[in-house]
Structure formats: C-alpha cells, structure tokens
Design brief:
Structural class of chain A: alpha/beta
Oligomer: heterodimer
Radius of gyration of chain B: 21 Å
Largest sheet of chain A: 6 strands, mixed
Helix content of chain A: 25-40%
Helix content of chain B: over 70%
Distance between the termini of chain B: 10 Å
Distance between the termini of chain A: 51 Å
Order of helices and strands of chain B: HHHHHHHHHHHHHHH
Largest sheet of chain B: none
Structural class of chain B: mainly alpha
Strand order of the largest sheet of chain A: 6-7-8-3-9-10
CATH superfamily of the largest domain in chain A: P-loop containing nucleotide triphosphate hydrolases
CATH class of the largest domain in chain A: Alpha Beta
Number of strands of chain A: 20
Shape of chain A: globular
CATH architecture of the largest domain in chain A: 3-Layer(aba) Sandwich
Shape of chain B: globular
Number of strands of chain B: 0
Radius of gyration of chain A: 25 Å
CATH topology of the largest domain in chain A: Rossmann fold
Chain lengths: ~500, ~375
C-alpha cells in the first residue's frame, strides 16, 4: 500500500467544555477524492482547520506524505503542499484574476516581472488542469463558479498537492456543480489529493472515492464510496434511520389567497430582474418555484413580501391591491396574513446578536407577543419564546441564548416557529433547509406539510430541486426573470424541470 | 468572535483600559520631572476631597451624562452622532430664547419646563437636518454632524455678538436670565435642609440627568420603539424584513439624540451661569463620544464614565494650580489616552483575558 497523503491520529480539540474533535483518526490516500461528511457541528470544519493550521490540536499526530508534521499556521500548511478553498471566497473583487492569483507572491517591489511570471504560470496551470479562466477578467464580474476556479488556481499556484474544499458547492448552481465535479476529477487525474467537506450526500456519492463520516466530534465510519449507499451514510451521520420521503398530504386547493399580475422589476442599473411574472397562490397548496439561483426568485420573494416596492404590475390579497401607487411595507403585508421565511436567515431572518426571545418577536414586536402593556414585557417574551422552542424542538431551548449560538438547523427552526405561530394564510418560504442537518430537514418539511394541510397558501423557493419536487403540488420554473412554465407535480421530473431551468420552454421540453 | 463573561466584559476590561491610560499618563508626568503618585493624589483630592470639589465634579458629570446619552441613543441605531457639541450649543440658544421672551413675567414652575423643552427642541432640530439628509439622501451622518458643529458655532457667534448680546457690553454673551428661570443649586437646597455644604455650581440639572438616564434605559430596552431601534442598529436588512421603517427611525433616533445633547445647556444656562456665553459647550459635546464608548452605550455605564470624566476634569484644574510644570493640558492628555484605550483599543486585552479565563473562540 502506498503512503497516504494525510494521516491524522488521535486528534482531539476542545473549545471550553465542548469537545469539537474527540480522538479523530483519518487516512487520506494519495491521489483520491476523499469526502468528509457530517451534520452541522459534527466537527468537520474544526478537523480541517487543524490540518490547515487555523487551530492547533490539543493532542494527536499529523503526517503528510508519511512524515510527521506540526502545522501552526497556514503558511506552514502551504509549505507542506496543503491548500484550502474556503466556503466564502477570499478574493479581492476589484482585482483581476491574475492579480488575485499573484497575491502574496508578487516577487519584488515592481509588479512587471511578477505579473509576467504569474501569467506564464497561470496559463500553464489552466492548461494542465483544464481550468479555463480569463486572466484579465475582473473577479467581481465573474460568476461564482468561475471565482471558485480562481480560488483553486490560487492554491495550485502555491504548490498545493493536497486541496481542502470546505462546502464548495453551497454557492453553485446545479450546472456549475457538475462542472466543478469534472474539475475535481481532472485534479485527481493529475495526482492532486482532494479533501471534500460537505453535508450533501449526493455529492459524496457522485464524486468521492472514499468517505469518512463524523458525528458529534467523533469519526464514526470510513467507507469506500462504491461499497456504500446514500442511506447508509445518512444513517451513520445522524445515528438513526431517516426517511428522505416526506409524508405527503394531497392538495385540496381552495380559493386564490394571493395573486401577482405582470410583476416587472428593474434593478438600480436598469437591468430587468423580473419580467411580467404572474402567479396564483391557492389555499391548501404548495407552489414550488424552481430555478437556478439568480434568475429572479429572490427578487420575486422580496416584492411579494413588501421588502422591495412594486414597480410595475400588482399583487392582490383579498380586497387589497398592492401596486406602485398603493405600496405595502412588510408590516402591512404581515397584517394581511402573510408570513415570510427569508432566504437568508443570517442577514434577514435573525438578528444574530439578539437572544432567541428577542428574535422570536422580530416583525411581530408591535403585537401581543411582547406583552399587553405599553412597555415590553420581558417575562412574557421569554415565556412565549420558551413555548415556541418547545413546540418546534429548538435546542437548546433557552430563550436567553443569542441567535448566533444556535446551529443552522435550530436557527431555521426558530425562524419557522416565529413565522408559523400566527397561523398565516399565506407563507413565502425561501431556502427552508439551507445549511440544515438531516434531522432538521425532516422536521421542517413536516411543519410545511402541516401548514398546507391547515389551508395555508405556500410559495416555496429552493435551490434544492429535490426539495421542491418532494414538497410542491405545482412547480413553476423561472429563467432570466421570466416564468418559463408550470408543471403539475404528477408530471414533474428532474429532467423536465432541469430543461426548463436552463430556459427551454415547456412545450419544446415535453 | 470571542465572548467573555459579563463581569469581565463590563468591569475588568474597562478597569484595565483605565489603568493603562493612567499608567501611560504617569510616564508622561515622570518625563516632565514630577512625581506621578503626587500628581495622582492632587487630582483625587481636587476632584473629591477639597471643599466643594465633589460638587464641581458632579456638575461636570452632569454635562457628560447628557452628551454621553446623546451619543449612545444614536449609536444603538448604528448612527455616529459627532454633532453633540453643536447640538448642545444650539440647545443653549433654544432655552435662552424661551427665557428672554418670557422671564419678565412667567413664574419659574412654568418657565423652567418651557426652557428645558426649548433646549431639547433646538438640539433636536440641529440634529434633524443631518438626520434627514442621511435617511433620505444617504449623506453620511458623521460628515454632516461634524460640519453642523461648525455651522452652529458660527451661528452662535453671530447671534451672541449680534442681536442677543447684552446691551451696553462688548462681551459676546447674553444677558442673565431672571432668577425665576434658574434651577436651584444643590448646596442651597441642602443648606436650607440643615446640612452644611460648600457652594458649587451643582444644580438640579444633575437629578434631571439621572432621570434622563432612566428614561433612556426604558426607551431603549423596554419599549417597542427601542426594540425596533436596536434591531435596526444590529441588522438593517433584518429591520427592513421586519417592516421597521428605517428612514423614519433614523430621523427619530437623531432627534432624540440631539435633544439629549441640547439638554446639556440647561446645566450651564439655567443652572450655573444664568447666561449663554461664547463657546460654552467647550468640548463636553465631543467628550460625550468617549463617555458613551466607555459606558458601552448603557445608562449605568454612562453615569460611571461621566463621573470619571467629571472627576478628571475637576481634578485637572487642581493639577494646574498645584504644579507649575503641569497644565490643564495634562487632563486632555489623560482624556485622550482613556479614549484611545477604551475606544480605539477597546478589544486589545480581550484575547489575553479570554485565554486567561480558558475560553477560546468556538468552531
């Protein structure tokens, strides 16, 4: 057997009372794609952060290419041939690709020589690894998938032979993800060892050679990907059997609760982000909005929620008509019986420095949740929040804990709880399970189903096509700000929706 | 970001920063050739021990409480109100105009509340223009409030050297307001109650300042409006999502902030001096920023920080008397160091303290 590229033995790391890594062993064979999976908070990121020198382990041993090493910072990691691409890119948007790749290796006070050398090196790398990027393009103008290539090129330029990728596909569209996997296979063919951190099982099954599963700080299993199944990995991750299937309740569509007519919206630069979008949302059904992200779904949600004013077209809820001349802000929309689970819970759905109780009244702070009197009633808020947390299984169920201290799944449950509690007649739900672990996903899906059964009209936006297919009664597909078409659940399949997401109209796709 | 236990965050870190500032100031005193411990003793005696010293300290504390609260209220909405100086100055004009118009006949119990309202209203007005520009045009509030300090100063020179100048005088100051408009001195009140207290400029504006602290606490932490204000300060996208009218909140927050700064004027005009003199805010408005920073935006912290700065201010006067080599500027130096260590370098100790306490940043 050949020497493994990376061998970790008995790695332990504590943060105060929390054991993030508990005597973790890991062996990554050279020239393979090795997946590390686990739920949020399982310790994956901590483990690779130790390997990359962000944290130092309390105990344990690291070997790179068979030689014992200590890695105290990222410079040493790079010296050992370890490169890392972070979940959030570390690129300077105003710089060109070339300037970004050159960063930290300028080679002298004047840029001319360094630039020429870097350009030659960059073109060689692009050729060797089939990573096409225009060296003179400004990074901020590139799509996310291209920016990711720049990150990989940066790492390779520094001589990385072992590449750590932390949740690399979270920001990619499905098509970009496929291309990205091709890149990984290309890297492997060139002898690069890839360490892929993810919580998406499909990616593990698609692209890895071996997979290691972490649960609550412990390494629980190593498998050859070819010899395992998605279900087995899922079970290992959560430690119990989970069903991917949602217990569906058939739709009994009622009257139209909300409708949009001819919504058109231009951004500050005058670019049309939405063109003539119309839809009907009926009580007791879930309308799924599919599309590659960035094709107008977010803008549509913002306009329907009242966050962005209507420019052209109108929204009708009951007898209220919302248009450019008769705007409604989010507070008024809420009073019309609309609840909104925003796509971005960190920016919008929650105020991270606020505690859970304060977050549980966001948007409803003028109502009875903050007490009956003229002043806020902290006791009432805490009691109310504690009850919500119990009902929606938010852990830990402490109303005084800051929102930032909860895991992604529990943060999302808190937002869902807040929005579901007033029993809205209309719900806009964006990315309900982004960054949520499997146990949390099942719970949130069940809650959405329960709302539907209770007669709520639900608009669901998700980048996870599987999620839309599992939950929706009708699926509307958007491309370039337009509605491409609508497919009833019975006729929807990945291929058909995928064609429509690519902009092929329904008639020709059928 | 590392989180410390509350006691370290609110007590240990500020005390460390203060100690460091005093330590560095001590080195400067040493470099001048004086004994820092002696200088320290002179300051402490000057601020607390000598007859009437505590009264003076609390008088200055009152100024700092008002201007500190002003900065804090705006800062909870993430607005940096640098215009406290100008707002306090204009507050003086507001109170003065009320007094000049009415003090010939109106009795105190009516006049004083009106004058206080005048100070608040003019302070609010002076903050309102930058606020409107920020809320509806996006002009940066830091720039506009700084500029409004200069405009305010120019306006006050024009007014005090012009229409409002005391007739028959060549000093740019107003006439004294009638006795009815004056806030009683604390030493008068206590002497009347049989205590023997040395005279000082400390007046009823001090308890009013403490009331204002309580009012601000209720406003920020116990009202729905305060909740919306803090939400906006912590995350504007979340506030917009929640339906909080951000532009209106900016205007309201700045108006309240300006009103609090304007109230500083009642301490001097209605309290100690009875008239508006040129440049009476003399830096208290600016130092309010440091007070609010050091007090962590909380009324209790602001009272403590204001008391510290008040003691420094008063103790510094004594330094000036006692030493020929040390001038009042030494106090400015110490103030500057405190601002540096508790404002700009506030987080310097945090990593070391958290390591000492065995807490590191989580994954």
């Amino acid at each position: 057997m050949t020497t493994p590229a990376v061998r970790l033995t008995g790695i332990t790391k504590r943060f105060g009372p929390v054991i993030a890594n508990d005597t973790v062993d890991l062996e990554v064979a050279s020239g393979t794609i090795h997946g590390i999976v686990g739920e949020n908070g399982a310790g994956k990121s901590t483990l690779v952060s130790i390997l990359y020198g962000f944290y130092s382990a309390d105990s344990g041993m690291m070997e790179v290419d068979g030689a014992p090493v200590t890695i105290a910072d990222s410079a040493q990691a790079i010296a050992h041939g370890i490169g890392m691409v972070h979940q959030h890119f570390m690129l300077i948007p105003d710089f060109t690709v070339l300037e970004n790749v050159m960063l930290g290796a300028e080679g002298g006070a004047l840029l001319r020589d360094g630039k020429a050398a870097t350009r030659a090196e960059l073109l060689r790398l692009e050729r060797d690894y089939a990573l096409d990027v225009d060296p003179d393009a400004v990074v901020g103008d590139l799509p996310v998938g291209m920016q990711q290539r720049v990150e990989i090129l940066k790492a390779l330029r520094r001589g990385a032979r072992i590449l750590i990728l932390d949740e690399p596909t979270g920001v990619l569209t499905p098509a970009e993800t496929d291309r990205f996997f091709d890149i990984l296979r290309g890297l492997r063919a060139q002898g690069v060892t890839v360490l892929l951190i993810t919580h998406k099982l499909r990616e593990i099954m698609d692209v890895t050679d071996n997979v290691s599963v972490m649960r609550r700080g412990k390494m629980v299993a190593h498998r050859r990907t070819a010899e395992t199944t998605r279900e087995e990995i899922a079970e290992l991750m959560v430690g119990r059997t989970v069903s991917f299937e949602v217990d569906r309740i058939d739709a009994v569509p009622g009257p139209v609760a909300m409708s949009a007519h001819g919504l058109t919206w231009h951004d500050a630069g005058g670019v049309a982000r939405l063109s003539d979008v119309s839809l009907d949302l009926r009580n007791g059904e879930i309308l799924g909005l599919a599309g590659v992200s960035g094709n107008g779904q977010s803008e549509l949600l913002d306009i329907l929620a009242g966050i962005v004013p209507v420019q052209a077209g109108r929204i009708v809820i009951g007898s209220r008509e919302v248009a450019a001349q008769s705007p409604a802000d989010p507070a008024q929309m809420r009073r019309l019986g609309l609840a909104h689970v925003p796509e971005d819970r960190h920016q919008r759905g929650l105020i991270l420095p606020f505690d859970a109780a304060e977050n549980s009244v966001l948007g409803y702070h003028d109502g009875p949740r903050t007490g009956d009197g003229r002043l806020l009633d902290p006791k009432a808020m805490h009691a109310h929040c504690a009850a919500l947390m119990a009902r929606f299984d938010v852990r830990p169920g402490d109303p005084r804990q800051r929102a930032a201290g909860f895991s992604g799944g529990n943060q999302q449950k808190l937002v869902m709880a807040r929005e579901i509690e007033p029993e809205p007649r209309i719900m806009l739900i964006g990315q309900p399970t982004r960054g949520v672990d499997i146990g949390g996903i099942a719970f949130i899906h069940a809650e959405i189903m329960a709302r539907k059964a209770a007669g709520c009209a639900i608009l669901l936006v998700s980048v996870e096509l599987d999620e839309i297919l599992a939950l929706s009664d009708r699926i509307m597909v958007m491309n370039a700000g337009r509605v491409v078409g609508e497919v009833p659940r019975a006729k929807a399949d990945t291929r058909r929706i995928g064609m429509m997401m690519a902009g092929v109209a329904e008639d020709s796709a059928a | 970001m590392t989180r410390l236990p509350a006691w370290a965050d609110y007590v240990l870190i500020p005390l460390l920063n203060l100690a460091l500032a005093l330590g560095v100031a001590g080195l400067v005193v040493l470099a001048i050739g004086e004994n820092p411990l002696h200088a320290m003793r002179v300051m402490i005696e000057g601020a607390f021990v000598y007859e009437g010293a505590l009264g003076y300290t609390l008088y200055y504390t009152t100024n700092f409480i008002f201007t500190g609260l002003a900065v804090a209220v705006a800062f909870h909405a993430r607005l940096f109100n640098i215009g406290g100086e100008g707002q306090a100055y204009l507050g003086g004009l507001g109170a003065l105009l009320v007094c000049l118009a009415l003090d010939s006949w109106m009795p105190g119990p009516l006049l004083i509340p009106l004058a206080i309202a005048g100070a608040a209203a003019f302070g609010a007005l002076w903050a309102l223009i930058p606020a409107l520009l920020q809320a509806y045009r996006g002009s940066h509030i830091v720039i506009t409030t700084i500029m409004f300090n200069f405009i305010g100063a120019g306006l006050m020179v024009a007014v005090l050297a012009g229409p409002l100048m005391r007739s028959g005088q060549s000093n740019p100051e107003s006439r004294e307001v009638a006795e009815a408009a004056r806030l009683p001195f604390i030493h008068d009140i206590l002497n009347a109650m049989g205590f023997d207290i040395a005279s000082s400029p400390l007046n009823l504006a001090f308890p009013i300042a403490l009331l204002a602290c309580f009012g601000v606490w209720v406003l920020i932490w116990r009202t729905r409006w305060g909740y919306a204000l803090r939400a906006m300060g912590q995350s504007e996208p979340a506030a917009v999502y929640a339906g909080i009218p951000v532009a209106r909140m900016i205007v309201a927050a700045m108006a309240i902030s300006g009103a609090l700064a304007g109230l500083m004027a009642i301490n001097t005009l209605l309290g100690a001096q009875g008239k508006v003199v040129l440049n009476f805010p003399s830096g208290f408005g600016f130092t309010g920023i440091a007070v609010a920073l050091m007090g962590r935006g909380h009324p209790v912290g602001i009272v403590l920080a204001a008391f510290l700065f008040g003691a420094l201010f008063q103790g510094g006067t004594e330094l000036d008397f006692e030493f020929t080599t040390i001038t009042r500027e030494m106090v400015l130096l110490i103030q500057g160091l405190i601002i540096l260590f508790s404002g700009a370098l506030a987080l310097m100790f945090v990593p070391w303290i958290s390591r000492l306490l065995g807490r590191e940043g989580g994954a």
